[in-house]
Design goal:
By secondary structure, this protein is α/β, with parallel strands linked by helices. It contains 17 helices and 13 strands.
Length: 518
């Protein structure tokens, strides 16, 4: 019987339609593959949407038709996994959904035979790669924006009252027609007789529109005194640096306004306190009612504090156990997650091969973009020749030159993004090995907030503590596959805890140096 295939092409922006991994190119490759295999194409779906999730109009329409059997197919074909999704967890879930409908997801690149159990790990890595690339691009972009701010340049959408002056080539802020409204708003509020909302409404009546939620942010932004605020991030503390742009508010007035805003702000807002004795607070689930467990101290007659995890009294549950004991048992639970030397080596070599292919793909994309720049430069030269020879008027020449120059600028931004992605991914892989190999040690060394982040990433759903053991409905997919010693309840299987002393691949827990070299 002839197999029926749905071919799916996706890009994320209109720009990509013209200059990137085009829909037409994807469609041509998919069609050729179907013809080669004598598959009948029952649907040709093209999408212009982000791959961060599956809430895409065309994809959802297809899913609806498949479920209602108005569309019948047994293969869903994409060129590569990043065209399917850039979210590993959602990818795994959607593959299962389509499988239940009777549709197998295939790719032209990096397709694996899932009838072989060991290939499931390679499949997870294939699905993880687009997410790693996406996250790395976002991280590099954030670093680039922070560096631009340190140099005094504004990064992002211009704040109200300013526009970008791109004539210098560095996109510097310059005051625009809204600057006078910003100045008047500060002067009006600085008198101390008006509420912030009264000032906003007055400005609105004069033609300056700003939402109620955004107006306080405008009045607190130091950009108006020629400063740029850089928020704290990782090990970096928050900074206030001198900007390269012109200030529009006097510093004395600005700080007077800040004092008024602070004085009038709501008082007594409760802050969520982090307690080092309760690192699992908010991450545990009551085994009786299913709600989140809280926790707190109890004093004995001598006045000594003892900490307990418990269900809130208003729910009437009697769930209550020692935090000290539960914390110790959790460390033992983490220690139970072990990766065998064979799996670790296989994972490393598969990742190394994939990263090599990714580097090759990046170089290919760079060459294509550089060729596009050369083509645009040639077109500008042709337009210039026509203008010189009176074959083109000045207005047409200016428009043509501007259009092609804009394309060059856009392509150069893409090239910069690719260069930012050109990091040594294997360093991160090796770091992850060290973290997984010394999971318990890393957890013990971390502060309470980091501990909670580790637990949240390992266990997407809440933990249940019962009879001095932990279980969870769901464990991180990658950890589950690599350790291969977790049952369907999220418990450690008996007899599946390999002795870590037999592993030849080890890293020092202090500092977490890369596990492998080369």
């Amino acid at each position: 019987m002839q197999r029926k295939a749905i071919i799916y092409s996706r890009v994320s922006t209109d720009e990509q339609k013209e200059q990137g991994f085009s829909l037409q190119d994807q469609r041509a490759q998919l069609t050729k593959h179907c013809r080669k295999n004598s598959w009948q194409i029952v649907a040709d779906i093209q999408e212009d949407h982000s791959a961060k999730d599956f809430n895409r109009p065309e994809f959802q329409n297809m899913l609806f038709d498949l479920r209602n059997k108005t569309l019948k197919a047994d293969i869903f074909l994409v060129v590569r996994w990043d065209r399917f999704s850039r979210n590993m967890y959602e990818s795994l879930s959607m593959i299962q959904i389509l499988k239940k409908i009777g549709v197998e997801v295939r790719t032209l690149e990096n397709n694996v035979d899932l009838t072989i159990p060991e290939n499931l790990m390679i499949q997870v890595i294939n699905l993880a790669m687009p997410q790693i690339e996406n996250d790395r691009r976002g991280l590099n972009t954030k670093r680039g924006m922070r560096q631009a701010k340190r140099e005094g340049r504004w990064a992002g959408t211009p704040p109200k009252g300013y526009s970008f002056d791109r004539s210098s080539g560095k996109s510097l802020l310059v005051p625009n027609e809204d600057a006078k409204y910003i100045q008047e708003a500060f002067e009006m509020y600085g008198k101390g007789v008006y509420y912030l909302e009264e000032v906003r409404r007055h400005m609105s009546s004069k033609g300056y529109y700003c939402s109620k939620s955004n107006f306080p942010k405008v009045m607190r932004n130091p950009v108006y005194i020629g400063k740029i605020y850089i928020e704290a991030w990782k090990e970096d503390e928050a900074e206030l640096v001198d900007g390269l742009h012109e200030s529009i508010i006097d510093e004395a007035l600005f700080y007077k306004v800040q004092e008024l805003l602070k004085r009038r702000s709501k008082q007594g807002q409760k802050k969520n306190k982090i307690n080092e004795n309760l690192p699992l607070r908010g991450l545990l689930q009551c085994r009786q009612c299913g709600r989140n467990l809280s926790g707190g101290p109890v004093r004995n007659k001598a006045g000594k504090k003892y900490y307990y995890y418990n269900c809130q009294r208003k729910y009437g549950c009697k769930e209550n156990f020692s935090a000290k004991e539960a914390n110790m048992q959790f460390i033992k639970y983490l220690e139970s997650f072990q990766i065998t030397e064979e799996v670790l080596n296989l994972y490393y070599h598969v990742m190394k091969d994939l990263f090599k292919k990714d580097d090759q793909q990046r170089e290919k994309e760079k060459r294509q973009l550089e060729l596009q720049i050369e083509e645009c430069k040639k077109l500008i030269e042709k337009a210039e020749d026509k203008f010189i020879n009176d074959e083109m008027d000045r207005e047409t020449y200016s428009k043509s030159k501007s259009r092609y120059q804009n394309k060059i600028d856009t392509i150069q931004v893409k090239l910069q993004e690719i260069d930012l992605q050109d990091t040594n991914f294997m360093n991160y892989v090796e770091y992850d090995f060290a973290l997984l190999y010394h999971l318990k040690d890393y957890y013990l060394q971390a502060d309470t907030i980091t501990k909670q982040k580790i637990v949240s990433s390992l266990f997407p759903e809440k933990l249940i503590y019962e009879d001095k053991k932990y279980r969870t409905p769901k464990v991180n997919e990658v950890l589950s596959i690599l350790t291969n010693n977790i049952n369907e309840l999220g418990e450690i299987k008996k007899g599946k805890n390999p002795n870590s002393e037999n592993l030849s691949l080890r890293a020092s827990p202090r500092g977490l140096e890369p596990l492998l070299q080369g």
